[in-house]
Amino acid sequence: MEWTIGWWQVSVQRVYPTNEQLSQTYSKAAFWWHQHLRLLGYRHAYRQLWRSLKTTNALPDWEGNLAICDCGIGTAAFSLAFAQAITPQARIAGVDLSAKMLNTAHQKLTQANIHHQIFHSDVKRLPFADRSFDGVISAHMLEHLADPEQGLREIVRVLRPGAPLVLVVTQTGLLGWLIQCGWGNRCFSREQLSALMHEIGLINLQFVTFPFSIARFTSMACVAYRRL
């Protein structure tokens, strides 16, 4: 945005946190984050979301020894909900910029007896070979990227043909704006996210409504597939 005031031109441009800033911000929150998600109802909402995806046949016939990547795993709330609702035999590869978040994720997944590995890495440069995973899951990560298309293209790279991406992002609205003020993320409308998914070539996009909870008013979820 630009304004001209007399002989002066004033411009305002949105900036996003650097990787280092994101790591520092979420490392400070790592100690209380998992409990915070429980108190706000997100952990329950995540479980209900996975059950809804399963019962509506929005997912493949997932079972057994799946290879799943959780991008922006945080304290593993989304992965734990996946394991509880879909299959506890999955092998989770968790990626995050915050080492302290990864330590908590490791503790939570170990306590739940879920086979996993954690990777201190940037989603824009995932440390995996092409077509490594039966699915990628991600909750509240994409909105922190200055270039979300770049992040999604890297996610698609590691998906096997025909495999799904299950994505949760902060949605536009008053609550989304309040979250944005506190954490420096962007918010997506359904139209913006649909256009982005279409641009990178994901297909069979479906949006899924959260159960009645705060998550319904702050977040939106979708599933889309890599082409065969």
Mean pLDDT: 90
Order of helices and strands: EEHHEHEHEEHEHHEHE
Counted beta strands? 9
Q: How many separate domains make up the residues?
A: 1
Helical coverage, percent range: 40-55%
CATH architecture: 3-Layer(aba) Sandwich
Keyword list:
Methyltransf_11, 7-stranded mixed sheet, methyltransferase, SAM-dependent_MTases_sf, alpha/beta, 228 residues, Methyltransferase domain-containing protein, 8 helices, 21% strand, Rossmann fold, two-stranded antiparallel ribbon, S-adenosylmethionine-dependent methyltransferase activity, single chain
Describe the structure in your own words.
There is one protein chain. With 228 residues, the protein is an alpha/beta fold. It has a single domain (17-225), classed as Vaccinia Virus protein VP39 (Rossmann fold). The protein is 41% helix and 21% strand. It contains 8 helices and 9 strands. The protein has a 7-stranded mixed beta sheet, sandwiched between helices. The protein has a two-stranded antiparallel sheet with strand order 1-2. Strand 4, helix 4 (99-111) and strand 5 (116-120) form a beta-alpha-beta unit. Helix 1 (19-39) runs parallel beside helix 4 (99-111). The longest helix has 21 residues, at 19-39. The protein is globular and about 65 Å long. It starts with a strand and ends with a strand. Residues 70-166 form the Methyltransferase type domain.
